[in-house]
Design goal:
This protein has helices at about 5-15, 35-50, 70-75, 80, 90-95, 110-125, 140-150, 175-180, 195-205, 210-220, 225-235, 250-260, 265-275, 280-285, 295-300, 315-325, 330-340, 345-355, 360-370, 385-390, 395-405, 415-430, 440, and strands spanning about 25-30, 55, 130-135, 160-165, 185-190, 280, 305, 310-315. It is of the alpha/beta class and about 450 residues long. It folds into three domains: about 5-190, P-loop containing nucleotide triphosphate hydrolases (Rossmann fold), CATH 3.40.50.300; about 195-250; about 360-445, no CATH class. The chain has a five-stranded parallel sheet with strand order 2-3-4-1-5, with helices on both faces. A three-stranded antiparallel sheet has the order 6-8-7. Helix 12 crosses helix 16 and helix 21 packs across helix 22 (about 415-430). The protein starts with 5 loop residues before the first helix and ends with a helix.
Amino acid sequence: MIVSREEELASLHAFIGEEPGGAAALVLEGEAGIGKSTLWLAGVEQARERGLRVLWSRPAEAERGLAYVGLGDLFEDVLDDVLPALPAPRRRALEVALLLEEAGDSLDPRAVGMAVRTALQLLAEDRPVLVAIDDLQWFDASSAGALAFALRRRGSSHVLLMLARRLADRAPPSGLEQALGAERVQRLPVGPLSVGALHRFLRDRLGRPFARQTLLRIHERSGGNPFFALELARILDADIGPVQPLPVPESLEELVRARISGLPASTREALVLASALGATSESLLQRAGVAADALDPAVVAQVIERENGTIRFTHPLLSSVLYQDLGDERRNVHARIAGIVEDPLLRARHLALSTETPDADVAAVLDALNDKATQELDWKHSIVDLMKLLSLDSSLAARKELAKELHCGGDTGDSAKMNVWLHKQIMVNLAANGGKLPDELKNLT
């Protein structure tokens, strides 16, 4: 239930029912915890009820350095409709960007942008399309660039854009907003709740009322920010006196840290891994040695929620604080993740993030691993040796399975050709995802 957001909901509903030629984008703006994501989700649900085709993405902070991961989110559920209808060059560009097809030469961002433009036009032929992105500040730059390119050239297609972004001081409009032009963008500031609305919100969420004097102090300290107020109210005793000082950290981030610190150590360790992984599954965390019941306290504390085996933080700020607080330990966490993920591209990516430099030298990382190996492995030319170096099963059956997962269109019965294809695919996509590699490895023939 959404409390006291009638005006904001009315604006959302009006925007989603907008006729072609009206506002093309609605931007929900506000501070962390103010309720942008709640309204964004309501907008997504409203669009689906009205029959719009919804393409959506909810990026996590740990994923913002991965190339085209946002496009993968947006088109995940419509690829079967889009890919067969795209002209061959644009289909190939989109397939390469989404790691569905072998990359040849370096990927041209313009080709990806043209593919996205055509895909949006095709999807909008039979019904309006809503592109919905939550936490825009974490949407990866490559996806944003391709989508902005497409929006600048959208023509008469009925494509709407709904964004939720954290408001920063003097932050300029995003590239997506600039692509549409100021006259086509409607801004919807999400402000604080009133004292009465905050009371209803806290009573609904925590199942208990608060004395008016206590409520007034919660409202004053939180500035009417519902997430801040909820986190604050959680730590207050039910019988706190109306004039008793509130045991309040100085900021919302400190309050979140205090809440997480109250969880068992094994739970906090599992949450750290989840924050570095972005979207993750319980099975993957179990491979990292996380006990099956380690996350139960976090579910009870409403830090995370489970759905069909996947794990998601109940609020992005919880994940963000965990990830930011890792500091130098972040490299060790990514190294640990690299040891458990099975996808070689994802494994190499986390290996790169485990190095000291943000623009990771993948070749140097792999060379360093090779120096520690019990035998010298020719990872620069052999997929078998590369998989061994990454501690992956390098058997023929495993390589065939990997080729199938990467959508190899060739004959996997020819193991020599398949091996060359697999090695080239991994090298090129490592480079596309931000890893530094020598040119001779990016342009293998």
